[in-house]
Amino acid sequence: MVPFGYERKQSEKELAAKAQEPKYRRAYLDVTAFRRSSTGELIPQSFQWEGRTYKITKVLDSRNGQSFKEKITAWRFYCTCRGKKFQLFFEDGGFGNQRFYIEVKEAPSYE
Asked: Which domain of life is it from (predicted)?
């Protein structure tokens, strides 16, 4: 049955919100980082992306929080590389399961 009136407007809003919402995935990176002995702070220096190594020019900010797209708790680093700002996340799974990742938009799927 086709909704009418208020129900129809609500279903149209929901469909529009789903269509506009881009999907993200985690892309894990090989990151070179060091830990300051005085503070214990982790500082990323460079990363590999598609076979090339990029130097992180500056770490603007680092804090513990959630990634915006996937709502996973991780350390979030605001960095610059080649004049572009990006977010780098550090996932601490414990027992050697510690990884860096960035959030990448997925290509739209037309089903």
From this structure: Bacteria
